[in-house]
């Protein structure tokens, strides 16, 4: 990728071709590179702090009902702006011509193929229902309504320390 130059948006490369003529594999490589950077971002304390503060601020407002209150839209828009700004600022340090709108368009094209934490976070930024589910999951955790499955897990050694002891 050293001979490729990112042009005016995050998914264009310097091939002398228009964006629609850029080979799909080149777009996919750039997309994968950006996803890799977002995965790095998700591991940073700064991102966790922003998300945790946001969830703490609003978890009591969302209710586990089908009805969506008007205030939910304002909260979703605030979250969208906060997280999107954080992601864009992070990526523009690495990819100076990064364009979130082009990236989100390509993300929506590939939505059916995507899986994993990074895509859950990105879905919460672009999809209201994913965002609401994230807040309701946090609410359930705060209220102790999430079943703790760790009590059903048992770790047992397959070696017997007495019979495996070497007496030589």
Lay out the secondary structure:
Layout: H1 24-42, H2 45-58, H3 70-94, H4 100-109, H5 117-126, H6 128-142
Helix pairs in contact: 1-3, 2-3, 5-6
Description of the structure:
The protein is mainly α and 168 residues long. The protein has one domain (22-141): ADP-ribosylation factor-like 2-binding protein, domain (Adp-ribosylation factor-like protein 2-binding protein fold, Up-down Bundle). Helix content is 55%, strand content 0%. It is built from 6 helices and no strands. The longest helix has 25 residues, at 70-94.
Quote the average pLDDT: 78
The CATH superfamily turns out to be ADP-ribosylation factor-like 2-binding protein, domain
Helix content: 55-70%
Strand content: under 5%
Overall domain count = 1
Structural class by secondary-structure content: mainly alpha
Compute the separation of the termini in Å: 59 Å
Count of alpha and pi helical runs? 6
Q: Would you identify the CATH architecture?
A: Up-down Bundle
**CATH topology title:** Adp-ribosylation factor-like protein 2-binding protein fold
The major β-sheet equals: none
What is shown here, in short?
Plays a role as an effector of the ADP-ribosylation factor-like protein 2, ARL2. InterPro entries: ARL2BP, BART_dom, BART_sf. This protein is mainly alpha-helical and 168 residues long.
State the main characteristics:
mainly alpha, Adp-ribosylation factor-like protein 2-binding protein fold, disordered N terminus
């Amino acid at each position: 990728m050293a001979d490729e130059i990112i042009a005016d948006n995050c998914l264009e490369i310097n091939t002398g071709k228009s964006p629609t003529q850029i080979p799909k594999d080149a777009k996919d490589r750039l997309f994968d590179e950006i996803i890799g950077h977002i995965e790095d971002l998700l591991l940073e304390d700064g991102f966790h702090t922003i998300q945790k503060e946001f969830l703490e601020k609003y978890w009591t407002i969302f209710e586990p009902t089908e009805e969506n209150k008007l205030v939910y839209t304002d909260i979703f828009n605030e979250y969208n702006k906060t997280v999107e700004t954080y992601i864009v600022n992070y990526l523009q340090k690495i990819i100076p011509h990064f364009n979130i709108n082009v990236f989100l368009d390509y993300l929506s094209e590939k939505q059916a193929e995507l899986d994993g934490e990074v895509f859950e976070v990105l879905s919460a930024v672009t999809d209201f229902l994913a965002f609401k589910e994230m807040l309701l999951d946090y609410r359930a955790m705060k209220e102790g309504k999430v079943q703790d499955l760790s009590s059903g897990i048992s770790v047992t050694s397959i070696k017997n320390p007495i019979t495996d002891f070497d007496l030589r």
